[in-house]
Amino acid sequence: MNNRILIIIVSILFSLNMKALELSLEDCKNMALQSDELIRIAKNRITQSDLDKKIATTAYLPKIDGSASGLYMTPDSKMGDAMELQMRGVYLAGFSLVQPIYAGGKIYTANKLARLGKDVAKEQLEATTMDVIANAEKSYWMYIAIRSKIEMLDAYIIQLDSILSYTRSAYELGLTTRLSVSRVETKMSELQYNLHQAKSGEELCRLSLCRIIGVDEEETIIPLDKIELAPENNLVFSGIESRPELHLSMMNVEAKKYEISMVRSDFLPSLGLQLGWNAFGNLKMKNYMMLDNGTIFPYTQSVSYKGFVGAVSLSVPIFHWGEGFRKVRKAKVELENAELELEQNKKLMALQAKQAYSNYMDGFILIDSAEKAFSEAEMNLKMMKEQYESGLMTLTDLLEAQSQWQSSYSNLIEAKTQLKINEIDYLRSVGQLK
After folding, report:
1. Which among 368, 348, 369, 353 is positioned nearest to 423, based on CA atoms?
2. Cα angle vertex 227, ends 415, 426, to 5°?
3. Per-position b or e across 138-175, b if 16+ CB within 10 A of its CB
4. Which residues in the chain show pLDDT less than 50?
5. What is the pLDDT of residue 296?
6. Angle between the 178-213 and 25-35 helix axes, to the nearest 10 degrees?
7. Is the omega angle on the peptide bond into residue 100 within 30 degrees of 0, that is, cis?
């Protein structure tokens, strides 16, 4: 009795652990965004750029440094015939304040670049977010598609099983041949094989989705969404103004302009102010003194200092053999290249968006054709089945009708799934995938 109770408890715990994870499309997107490593890296880059901005701001402020040192030297140093310099425990301490007044515009430009760097990091996060969402959505719909095909094959097998039972009964009554039974059994084996292949594909899709949303690979996932029976065309073509990659190309041009100013500032005058307070002591000088009466006696004199020091420094580049001109010219060429790349990227992204929208619109045409073909195949199959059971149609015709039904059903699933993929690609191409 105790063993039975233990088995029941273990079974209950096992069933709880194997509880399926029911997820909507929004659930998958949110989980992917929370678990993706590239999203974390992009967020860290925003933090880094914010720190760079704060670091650049400190260049406007004075720098204050302190220092202290001690010196012990033996033996004493001789200075002339009689004087000796004693440095046993000499100390030097102080602090300095350095305030840049003008640096050729370098500090101002560096702050501009730092602020631009933060904007770049935000756009990179936006682009990465869209890529992660696109991967999550595509994986989700592919998983639904393969599960729909499995449901279709299950329905097909049920239909064929009914025909197999009818054919076997007819054979037992002598109304058909063994060859007819063999044909249906062969078709059943083929369907079982296709079902096994589909389930293998489902497992691969499940593993891919688990990896993208950051859950354990053993997790069973049940999607809550279905592919719409009659999808609506609710998108209109828009420009690429919202695309992060376009913004990044534009920011690259802006950064090149700042880099020209940075290069130019290296060859402009710079002005700075320095203030300091210093103290040193315990420096002793030993010597001999002769009195008026001719007596010579030794004496020691201590040297120390405490006080403020101030200085203004001006640096003016005069002649560098054309180095500054060439560096500025090089920076201008880099700016020109960035502008050309921007124009090229605009054209490519615009073309990509137009092609993606065209694919999206073509998807409705494919769905319409697939729906008509499926409706006709379904009606044909129903009619063939009735005529076969009435003896007015051959088994070969019935099996052919079922094959057409399976093919048209599979095409309809693929067309609707492809429309979802095309919609995702279009929204990504215009920077509107959220």
Report:
1. 353
2. 60
3. bbbbbbbbbbbbbebbeebbebbeebbebbbebbeeee
4. 1-18
5. 72
6. 50
7. no
